[in-house]
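ingest -> validate -> predict -> emit
validate: passed (alphabet ok, no gaps, 308 aa)
predict: started
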Amino acid sequence: MATKDPLSGHPGHLNESQQAALAQFKTELAAEGFYDPAVHDDAALLRFLRARKFDIPKAKIMWIDTQKWKKSFKVDELYETFDYTEKSEVDKLYPRFYHKIDKDGRPLYIEQLGKLDLTKLYAVTTPERQMQSLVVEYEKFQRDRLPICSDLAGHLIETSCTIMDLKGVGLSQFWKVKGYVQEAASISQNNYPESMGKFYIINAPWAFSTVWSLVKGWLDEATVAKIHILGSDYKKGLLEQIPADSLPVAFGGSCACPEGCSMSDAGPWKGKKGSSIKEKSIKDAQAAASVDSPAAVEAANGGEVTKA
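emit:
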C-alpha cells in the first residue's frame, strides 16, 4: 500500500488530479478577472484549494470573496502606508509579535491573550486600527516573512509556529474578549487559509476545556488537529520545536532582545522586503513552464522556492 504524501496538495507535491484542478482554477479565475499570474503564485492558489479540499467551486468562492474583501478593506494601501504609532502602548496591554524562527524555519508568532483588556486597549487605539494592524501583520507574514524564510531554508515555507499564552484568561475574561477573538479568527481563516504549521497553547486555565469547546466551533477540523495544549509545564514541549535562542526568556528560552522581544521584530526578515524573492520565483516558474523540460514539469507542479 502506497504511503500518502504528507505534503500532498502543496507546491511540488501535486498528483495529476490536483494539477488539473490548479489549471482549471486559474482559468476560471482569470476569466472573471480574479487571477493575475504576475501577482498570484501557485502557492497562494493552492492554499485556497487545500482549504476547500480541491473543490473548485468552493475554493473559487473563497478566493473571490478574499479578493473583494482585500479591496474593500484597502489591504494593499494599508500594507504600504499603515503607521502603527501606538504600537509601544498597545504592546504593554496586548503583546502579539513575530520573533525569529522555529527548528523547521517557520516564523515564530507569540500572542499573550491573557493580558488583553479591551477597555484599556481602546483607550490607546481604536477597534478599527487594531484590526488594521492585525491585517498588516498577516500581509507582512505572507509578503515578507514567508518568502524570506523560504529563501533562507532553501525550500518553501508556508506556515507559522504560534504560541498562544492564556495566562490570566478565565471565563469572565474570555467573555469580555470573545467578540474580538472571533473577529480576528474569522479574518485569518477566511482570507489567510492554510497558514498554521504548529500552534501551542500554554498556561491554559482550569476552565479552558469549556472555552476550548467554544473556540473549536469557530475553527475547521484541519486547524484543530494542529493545536497542542501544553498547560503550565510547557518549556520542554516548546524547546522541542523552537531553538532556545529564538524563544524569549519569559517562555523558557534564552533570547532577551535589548528593546524587548515583543518590540524587536527580530528575525531574518527584519528591515527587508520579500517582494523581490517572490517576483523572481514567479518569473522563474513562468520561464520554466514555457519550455519543454524537466523544469517545466516541476513548474507545472507548483515548483518550489529555491535558495538564491
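The radius of gyration is 20 Å.
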